[in-house]
Write a structure and sequence with these properties.
single chain; 6-stranded parallel sheet; 12 strands; binds NADPH dihydro-nicotinamide-adenine-dinucleotide phosphate
Length: 273
């Protein structure tokens, strides 16, 4: 049986095993998929052992995405652009390939929600790993403008600089309400700390808002956006499923039916409320 896992710390609440097992069942693939708590200190030993024991692929979450990128002998363009990886694949030639499917997951989810970015004014909040993994794919959608705002300006300016060869990304300096956006994507983890991104809430007026977090963690942001005139507000459950589908594709060369799993997980989420 082929062996896969998701690694990170914390990892207990990861939905990746549920998603990958559902995809595998659909596609008639026999696999084992587990959660493994791995810290930065134990990363090399655990990953070496996993692949030596026949493991075929890993999903990688916080705080290991940069380590995963540096671990691999081969990297895809999108992982190279992000400087971080959320997927590792063990190849037949014993090499490991790193990919980053976060941006693909975000854009596929927006498409599934009927949100087009083409020609739109897009604001991305945050400049951490998830934002870094998304900018290349967002630029590929050819928005009219792509702006970034982040609590720490220097991190955002570095991100803008790193992507400069792929397209124009602007720094939204003072997060002023004078700017107008069609789509606002929250890629910060502010809600986890009981905080909000430091933007003027007037920016939400008429915009479609999206939080990469999902479930209860996304609610402070989506509620805030809707209370201030957002046209719609979505959480990141679909992104999680779509980025998993892109990893599944890399490992098995089969595109799973994400719509079925989206329905299954959103029903489970509303029942758990
Ligand atoms: P990182 O830790 O790499 O980055 C965190 C970002 O949030 C930074 O930009 C940081 O700003 C900002 N931030 C943190 N606290 C605050 C605060 N109190 N106020 C304002 N900004 C703050 O995390 P990731 O980029 O990996 O993840 C971001 C979020 O996206 C997470 O919540 C994660 O769960 C979610 N995610 C969802 C995915 C999905 O599939 N749905 C996939 C990947 C991530 P600063 O630079 O100033 O520190």
């Amino acid at each position: 049986m082929m062996r896969f896992a998701v690694i990170g710390d914390p990892i207990e609440h990861s939905l990746s095993p549920t998603i990958h097992k559902a995809f595998a069942e659909q596609c008639g693939i026999d696999l084992a998929y587990e959660r493994m708590r791995v810290t930065p200190d134990s990363f090399d030993d655990e990953v070496n052992e996993f692949f030596s024991a026949g493991g075929r692929g890993l999903n990688v979450t916080q705080p290991l995405k940069t380590l995963a990128f540096n671990y691999a002998e081969l990297v895809t363009d999108r992982a190279m652009n992000a400087g971080a990886a959320n997927t590792l694949k063990f190849l037949d030639n014993d090499m490991v390939c790193a990919d980053n499917t976060d941006g693909e997951g975000l854009v596929q989810d927006l498409h599934a929600l009927g949100v087009s970015l083409n020609g739109k004014r897009v604001l991305l909040l945050g400049a951490g790993g998830a934002a870094r993994g998304s900018v290349g794919t967002l630029l590929g959608e050819q928005p009219a403008t792509l702006c970034i705002h982040n609590r720490t300006e220097a991190t955002a300016l570095q991100l803008i600089d790193d992507y400069a060869r792929l397209g124009k990304v602007d720094w939204l300096g003072s997060a002023t309400s004078e700017a107008e956006f069609d789509v606002i994507i929250n890629a910060t983890s502010a809600s986890l700390h009981g905080a909000r991104p430091d933007i003027d809430h007037a920016l939400f007026t008429g915009a479609v808002c999206y939080d990469m977090m999902y479930g209860d963690n996304a609610r402070p942001f989506t509620k805030w956006a809707l209370a201030n005139g957002a046209k719609a507000a979505h959480d990141g459950l679909g992104m999680l499923i779509e980025q998993a589908a892109a990893s599944f594709m890399l490992w098995h060369n089969i595109q799973p039916d994400t719509a079925r799993v989206r329905k299954q997980l959103s029903q489970a989420q509303s029942h758990s409320r």
